[in-house]
What we know:
34% helix
Amino acid sequence: xxxxxxxxxxxxxxxxxxxxxxxxxxxxxxxxxxxxxxxxxxxxxxxxxxxxxxxxxxxxxxxxxxxxxxxxxxxxxxxxxxxxxxxx
Length: 88
């Protein structure tokens, strides 16, 4: 299962607008994408509520993973968003 560790770049973390942007992109992937804080349980990245309850703040490391055909591209796409300041 491909996975990637990335640091949350948005100043508000994965909350509100950044969470909505990431969830929309994750839901559009051909495979289910999960995200977890280091040491925590993974949640579905396609849900805004799940992303907000993850409580991933600015500078936190998260692990993005997916399984199935197209998983590597899906992980890269979501990792790129999380590593971008979506509030800029």
